[in-house]
Amino acid sequence: MNLWHKMNLPNKITMLRFLAVPVFVLVVSLGRGWGADLLAGLLFIAAACTDFIDGYLARSRNLVTTFGKFMDPLVDKILVTAALVALVAMERTPAWVVVLILAREFAITGLRTVAVSEHVVIAASPLGKLKTACQMVAIALLLLYTMPFFAPAFGVTVYWLGQLLMYAALVLTLLSGWDYIYKCRNMLLGDV
Fold first, then answer.
1. Is residue 119 predicted with pLDDT exceeding 80?
2. H-helix or E-strand containing 89?
3. What is the pLDDT of residue 112?
4. What radius of gyration, in Å, describes the C-alpha atoms of the chain?
5. In a 10 Å sphere around its CB, with 0-12 CB exposed, 13-18 middle and 19+ buried, how is residue 65 labelled?
6. pLDDT of 31 higher than 90
7. Alpha-carbon gap, residue 17 to 95, rounded angstroms
């Protein structure tokens, strides 16, 4: 029996989100114009929505697995990283913003790894969840603001709203990163 048939539904949804990432990157890399932006935006939104769906199903049906605990956050980070790098390549968000966001993600992933080795569980914070929501909406808006069916003024509004949310995501990224590090300071500095 192959791995796909052994997986529960939430894990299958997670893996479909993972498989959507290279398709998204291909569309962004090869596509030009509003049609490619629309396809990339819809792919991203669909993939982002599956994150909420698989988590809800896993918790509500008691289908939480070790595989899901590992893959779900990893796939989320891969999806967001791919989208942020794409936005830099498309010149829709500054590289320095993406570097700071990704630096925080690497730092907190490392912190979580150390915490696991110390048998400490670091739960997702409300700031971290708000940060993720801001990132997802900002990315979607910055992918879709070029749609020709938007009135020009509305397209500009969508663009600036996307930029505002991206900077809000940056602030929340830094604040939530600091919050995680501060809460784990004793673990981190215990044997310095």
1. no
2. helix 66-89
3. 80
4. 18
5. middle
6. no
7. 25
Residue 192 has pLDDT above 60, yes or no: no
At 124, the amino acid letter reads A
Residue 9 CB neighbour total at 10 angstroms: 13
- What is the Cα–Cα distance from 187 to 18, expressed in whole angstroms? 33
Range 111-140 average pLDDT = 83
- Cα separations in angstroms, 181 against 66, 70, 110, 111, 126: 25, 21, 11, 8, 15
Sign of the four-CA dihedral 96, 102, 106, 107: positive
Nearby residues of 122 by Cβ (< 8 Å), 6 or more positions away: 111, 112, 115, 180, 183, 184
The CB density around residue 191, as the number of other CB atoms within 10 Å, is: 5
pTM (2 decimals)?
0.88
The pLDDT value given to residue 41: 94
H or E segment to which residue 134 belongs: helix 126-144
| Helix pair 126-144, 34-60: axis angle to 10 deg | 150
In the numeric block, which tokens belong to residue 119? 């048998």
Q: What does the pLDDT average to over 15-41? A: 92
Contact 31, 23 (CB under 8 A): no
